[in-house]
Structures are given as C-alpha cells and as structure tokens.
Design goal:
single chain, seven-stranded antiparallel β-sheet, 11 strands, globular
Length: 266
C-alpha cells in the first residue's frame, strides 16, 4: 500500500502556489495541443491534499488507497448524475475557494464579456452570426458546432502567451491570444452556457493523459446521462467511456468543484 509524504522543502514550494499552477502549460505533447509532463507530480500532490480537505503540511503521511475508499463511499448514491462515474471515477464536491484560478476566470469574464451581438469572435464572424448558425441545434449537434468553431483557433502554450507555466484565460483573452487546452475548454463551456446549456450538465475536467504522460483539460457535457467530451485535439466528440486514456483529477463548473478518484472495479 503506497504511502506518500512531503518534505519541508516540498511543502514550502507547493503549499501556497500549487492550486493556482495546476494545468496545461509546460510543454506541448505529441500533437502540440496538450500539456506537459511536469504537471503530473504536482497534480498528484494537490489531489492528495484535496482528499483530506486540507493543504499539505510537514510530516503528513497519506494512505492513498484508504483515502480513495473513503471518497468512493462518500460518493455513493449519485448514480443518476451523468458525471457520477465519468472516466470510471467517483467524485466528491470540494470548496470552490481551492480553485482560485477558475473563480478568477469567471470574475474576469463578467468584467470583460465577449458574448455581445456585434462582438467579432473569429474572422468576420460575430456572436450574432454564431448564434444564427447554431439556431435549432441541440445535444450532440450543438456541441459539435461549438467544438469545431473554437478548435479552429491555434494552440499556443501559456509560457509563450503569458510568460508563466500555467494561466487560465477568460474568453476575451482567448480571442486576443488564443491559448492551450484549458482555455479551449473554458471558452466552449461559457459559449454553451450562453446558448442555454445548464451549468449542472457541464464540467471542465483536468485529466492525466496516460497515453502521453501529460496533463490535459477537456470539457465534459452530460447528454441523457452520458458524458461526451469536447477536446481541442479533435473535432470528433466521443463519450467518456471511449477515452480510457484520460484519468480525471478534478473538475469544475461555475457552481461547484470536485476531486476525482478511481472507483472500484465492477
């Protein structure tokens, strides 16, 4: 049974800054549209801290297997939620204050809205034009249109855009500079919200891509009890159970945040 501990040096380096430096910035993957391997260790530290609901402290030892079992027991009874077993994990709600990089996006989006009738989003296409294009579309058809529209933007790493390893961009910033994986997920989430998709049916999921050994971010949309994934690496939209290489670490929408642990094999 693995035991994880942190040294004083590790705590001082990660405790205050770890949560706001989580995803999708260090290095491009094979496709050039996913994040870098250096985030995987950081993600594991944060996830273990979230399991306990407290930040890492010196001398703390956590039994990961026991913690996961507690989380799964706490998450029982949520079978009606399409996200209850997303990517074969269980999730437990966590305080939004643990994710300031996300709440900051929401605040900046309200201060600098882009979903205005005559606002140019891409080329000469305005928000009004995009709404007209997707009028009458629902479910997968709507999701495909939104996914394809934003995937046309170039992938640009945070280190190039913002001179930092990780930065979650609001849509107005994405329009100016484009972005990396979490930035695509953010703008798709907020676009679908404007088009009437409830927040409860969507989550931005930060995952480990086990094929590439990289951190990545995608948008999950619950449709009829099945979660479909909008990914910047492809215009195809697949159900989560077709993407077994993704292991979610945490997820957020504008109302809640969750951590994820692997469920028991059935």
């Amino acid at each position: 049974m693995p035991v994880v501990s942190w040294s004083q040096e590790q705590v001082s380096r990660h405790q205050t800054g770890a949560v706001r430096h989580l995803v999708c910035g260090a290095q491009g993957g094979a496709s050039g549209r996913t994040a870098g391997p250096g985030l995987l260790r950081l993600l594991s530290i944060i996830v273990l801290a979230l399991v306990l609901g407290i930040p890492p402290v010196p001398g703390l030892q956590v039994c990961a297997a026991q913690a996961a079992a507690r989380q799964e027991k706490a998450a029982q009874g949520k079978a009606g939620d399409g996200f209850a077993r997303v990517f074969r994990t269980v999730s437990l709600r966590r305080p939004m204050k643990l994710f300031p990089f996300w709440t900051s996006v929401l605040a900046r989006d309200k201060q600098n809205p882009v979903f205005l009738e005559d606002k140019i989003l891409r080329g000469r296409k305005t928000w009004k034009d995009l709404k007209s294009e997707v009028a009458g579309k629902e479910g997968l058809e709507l999701a495909r249109a939104v996914n394809r529209f934003w995937n046309a933007f170039p992938y640009i790493e945070d280190i190039r855009n913002w001179k930092r390893q990780d930065y979650w961009a609001a849509p107005y910033e994405f329009l100016k500079k484009s972005g990396d994986c979490e930035d695509y997920a953010i703008v798709k989430y907020l676009t679908l919200r404007q088009l009437g998709v409830p927040a409860s049916d969507m989550r931005i999921l930060v995952v480990n891509d086990t094929f590439r050994g990289l951190a990545h971010a995608v948008l999950g949309v619950n449709m009829g009890g099945t979660v479909y994934i909008l990914d910047n690496v492809s215009n195809a939209i697949l159900s989560h159970d077709k993407l077994g290489q993704y292991r979610p670490q945490f997820s957020v929408n504008e109302d809640n945040a969750w951590m994820h642990v692997r469920g028991k094999k059935k």
